Amino acid sequence: MDTLRYTYLLDVLVRHHHHCLFVGPTGTGKTVYVKSHLQSALPADKFTSMLLTFSAQTSANMTQDIIDGKLEKRRRGVYGPPAGKDMVIFVDDLNMPQVEVYGAQPPIELLRQAVDHDAWYDRKELSLKKLESLQYVAAMGPPGGGRNNVTHRYLRHFSIISMTAFDRDNLQLIFGALVDWWLRKFSYSQNIAKLAKGLVGATLDMYEAVQKQLLPTPNKSHYTFNLRDVSKVFQGMTKAAGSVEDSPSGVRLWAHEVLRVFYDRLVDEPDRLLVGRLLEQLTEKHFKEKLGRLLGMTTTAGGAAGVADDELLGGLQGLIFGDFMVPGAGAWYLPLVDFSKLLILVLGMLSGQMGKPDDVADHVW
Q1: Tens digits of residue pLDDT in 192-218
Q2: Which of 19, 38, 85, 267 is the residue whose CA sits 20 to 30 A from 349?
Q3: How many other CB atoms are there within 10 angstroms of residue 142's CB atom?
Q4: What pLDDT, in 10s, does the model give residues 229-271?
Q5: What are phi and psi of 139, to 5 degrees?
Q6: What's the gap between Cα 177 and its chain centre?
Q7: Are 315 and 297 in contact (CB under 8 A)?
Q8: How many C-beta atoms surround the C-beta of residue 196 within 10 A?
């Protein structure tokens, strides 16, 4: 339903030559919605489009050169898309350009000039270039985490559409379809296929928990989690192809991907222990399995925690999957259990890049 709403508004605004801006958190599909509609839903005889993605390093000169490269000369001093067409310029991550010392963002100020005056100056000939038949669609996330506030002098030109994050039911539907596709593609047995609902529910529970409990601070500014992290968990699981042998192996694979996506981002032991305990709770809640038993750990005597803190962190550190232990068998994404062989393999791979094996050993583990 949300997809229909957003694409309808986009279609109406573009066809009536209004600039529009989509604002929403990461993972709400802003880029996908706009790119898909501009490339396939607009009449090709009336519209053409181009994509412009901003970053912190984007400059005004770079922006002007990219747009100028897509325009044709219509008559003296006048430039635009091919005759008879309107060009829709999609600016993704609009608020990413770095703020200069005077508080402006040069690429955005250039676009503002183009909208205000339908013209900018040729930097070589120092002549005014009139711009025709251009309109803008943009997308950006809320300010923060490298994104900046955009001047209201530019925003006033846009019809702003706010995109809300997906609710839990929609997320379960989306990621459930992805897991079902993976299970069907490799013809997994019912014993493993029954894990599908638990895999989705446990991953979403982990995502929601770390979002609430592991907030960014000045020392941990990278503690920002979004739906792309959830998708990475399932993308990692699909790398196992058809190699999952039984239900416990599937749960271990899921735990490994959660560790790689969420756990590896953490910088201190209390945060790692928090995620480890969450993983322990979710494993029992959704799969009716004890994490300690899956990882070969011993339980503490009568302890509610299941395993001691040090043993839990050690067990999680030893849970590693990879596809590089057997040469030529890159499709087999399997658990790595012989760490002596893994160390020899890593040393051999690095020795050709960093010098003698003795030097390489200092950089491993």
Answers
A1: 999 999 999 999 999 999 999 999 888
A2: 267
A3: 13
A4: 999 999 999 988 888 989 999 999 999 999 999 999 999 999 9
A5: -140, 145
A6: 19
A7: yes
A8: 19
